[in-house]
Structure formats: structure tokens, C-alpha cells
Write a structure and sequence with these properties.
With 178 residues, the protein is α+β, with helices and mostly antiparallel strands. The chain has helices at residues 91-99, 114-124, 161-176, and strands at 2-4, 13-19, 31-34, 37-45, 50-63, 70-85, 103-107, 111-113. Strands 2, 3, 4, 5, 6 and 7 form a six-stranded mixed β-sheet that branches. A two-stranded antiparallel ribbon has the order 1-8. The termini are far apart. The mean pLDDT is 87. The structure holds zinc ion (2 copies). One zinc ion (ZN) is lined by residues 64, 66-67, 69, 131-132, 136.
Length: 178
């Protein structure tokens, strides 16, 4: 959606849109799929700048951090941004807003394209280490078996190479004994 900011000078501009964003646009390999993104919001002129408030709702499917299995996550998040155009960016005011934990977006011109802005919010809403369940056992580092569904016979007891050298030496010493 392209919003002409001038339109908000008289009254707040309200809009609703559904975005189909290709998952590749997120540039995050852990996102398997992304459903339609429903957005409803309002932009009002706050002199200086513009205040955008709204809500976004969608579903995303992520790869579990341990077993790579799919994790469905429903996202329903508020949107709150301050938009400053080139002319109206008094530094003091901006600092104050950032201290209040408000995201500030700088804009060239007086036309607001919601898509790049929403894309950034989508990226922020990707959890760091999604898990299919809190006790996911993950994959065997040797054979790749999904340990949630099967057990494998791999010896995953990694031996530190320094200890294994010592073990060899001990073995040889033991062999020398009469
Ligand atoms: Zn998992
Ligand atoms: Zn294994």
C-alpha cells in the first residue's frame, strides 16, 4: 500500500491490506513458509512526523533449531512506528522517542510504502531458536537420525583428541608390563 502522507494532515488515514510476501524476501533460511499477512492500521499526522499504529496477523512455519522439523507459529503483533520525513527530524525529539522504545523510520519524500516496512517487522518476528517442542531431542550428529522418533546405535560420545592420545599411551604402557 502506498500512503500519501499529505492525506493524513486533515484526518487519520486508515487502511487494511493482505500481503503475499514470498518467503525468499525474508532472507532467513529457517522460515519454511509464510502465510498471507493481514494488516490493519492507521497513520496520523503528529507534527513533527507521522504516527503509525496497527496490528499484523499471519502464520509462519519455521524449521526447528534442533531437528529441522516444521514448527507452526501464529503471529499477532501490534505495530507502532514513528515516521519522520527529511525536513522534520529534530534530533532531540528523536532521541526522546528512541528512549521510549519507539521505532523510528526515516522517509525520503512524502509517500509511504508499507511493504518494506512490514517486511522488516516480519524479520523481527522470527524467533531466534524455534523448537518443535521444548524437549526436542534433535538429530544424531553422526547419522542424522531424528532422535524424537528413533534411537540409533551411534556412539556419540565425542572423545577429546588430547584424552585419546593419553589413552593410547596408557594402553601401550599397559602392554609393556610383564
Ligand atoms: Zn525439533
Ligand atoms: Zn546416529
Amino acid at each position: 500500500m502506498l500512503i500519501q502522507l499529505e492525506r493524513t494532515h486533515e484526518e487519520p488515514f486508515r487502511w487494511e491490506e493482505t500481503l503475499e510476501i514470498p518467503v525468499a524476501a525474508l532472507e532467513r533460511s529457517e522460515v519454511i513458509s509464510l502465510g498471507p499477512v493481514e494488516v490493519a492500521g492507521e497513520v496520523r499526522f503528529t507534527d513533527p512526523g507521522y504516527y503509525l499504529k496497527g496490528r499484523m496477523h499471519y502464520e509462519q512455519e519455521l524449521a526447528c533449531d534442533r531437528c529441522l522439523g516444521p514448527v507452526r507459529v501464529e503471529v499477532d503483533e501490534p505495530l507502532e512506528l514513528l515516521i519522520l520525513t527529511h525536513e522534520e527530524a529534530p534530533e532531540a525529539a528523536e532521541q526522546e522517542l528512541e528512549e521510549k522504545d519507539m521505532s523510528v523510520v526515516h522517509l525520503e519524500g512524502d509517500e509511504l510504502d508499507t511493504e518494506p516496512l512490514l517486511l522488516e517487522q516480519l524479520q523481527l518476528n522470527i524467533p531466534m531458536k524455534p523448537l518443535c517442542r521444548p524437549d526436542c531431542k534433535g538429530l544424531c550428529p553422526r547419522c542424522g537420525a531424528n532422535l524424537n522418533h528413533e534411537t540409533c546405535s551411534c556412539d556419540t560420545h565425542e572423545v577429546d583428541p588430547r584424552w585419546s592420545a593419553l589413552a593410547d599411551l596408557r594402553g601401550r604402557l599397559a602392554g609393556d608390563e610383564p
